[in-house]
Amino acid sequence: MQLTPKRWNGVIEHYARFLPVTDATPVISLSEGNTPLIRADNFVAALGGGFELWLKYEGLNPTCSFKDRGMTLAVSKAAERGAKVVICASTGNTSASAAAYAARAKMKCVVLIPEGKIALGKLAQALMYGAVTVSIRGNFDAALRIVRELGETGLVEVVNSINPVRIEGQKTAAFEICDQLGRAPDFHFLPVGNAGNITAYWRGFKEYHAAGLTDRRPRIFGFQAAGAAPIVDGHPITHPCTVASAINIGHPASWAGATNACAESDGFIGKVTDEEILTAYKMIARTDGIFVEPASATPLAGLIRCAREGRIPTGSIVTAIMTGHGLKDPDTAIRTAGAEPFVVDATREAVMQVMGL
Ligand SMILES: *Cc1c(COP(=O)(O)O)cnc(C)c1O
To answer: How many CB atoms lie within 10 A of CB 164?
Structure first.
């Protein structure tokens, strides 16, 4: 018997016909995408059951967040234009992703991060991939303002989600969900920060439906953290503050995309407190063995609420995107776990005592 090699070569190759690429586009890829869609029955049972929940585990992308889907396209298009330097503002994951893809494209990468506000794993990534890492005394919104100004000089290529090709790449996650489920879900839950991803998902679900590949489009349910909920509150937040650092954004660039996704899909944008986020964060790790970063638990906190309020009809198929890996933010994990290792002598008896035997 002959084995037929079947490699996954990343989202540009797989979904080229839906993306703004040509044969002339150099593809800079780390084989991103093709992430698992994991059914979370124990979590649902803990909420009283009644629906199916499927988690798109985007933490298994090459730099451990969904940002890689947009970054492969942004850096490939930058390479096509002959760019030498890419720049972004980031709460962490965009910088990790930009740094990795820029390294592969032999470009210089400059990342602007808010001082003291980025999770340890993400900082390690940016530094390790060799990005010029600039910690600014200000928040994400200030960093993005500077990046926009630098972009206008024409000297650098901005790879934040204000770059429209980022959104194009990110929409491939919606395609994958439909391909994996064999249909579109009834509800799609996700966190909302700069609002690029909610914009991307809605576009992806719409395009697959328009292409006749799915028979429905999901209702989009986005959630912000209560301390950083400009869209829900209806005005920019000057000093956003949440434990979910990836969505600690007061002035989202794709604000209109988010409100449009909700309006067109008969969806909803809500907010959840840090306490609810951390409860969901710990719960999904313990019920189903899925470790995500705090921002990724935001839609689960929203789902807990919606289930309680009876907003999820029996038999619904619900998807939620787990945007980033839990190991990105070890500090919050260790604090939230609420447990420390037992330190004992190196004997069988000592271990048995800890086990209560
Ligand atoms: C970027 C990011 C988000 C927010 O996505 P937006 O497109 O900015 O709304 C959520 N979770 C994680 C882990 C992220 O990296």
So the answer is: 14
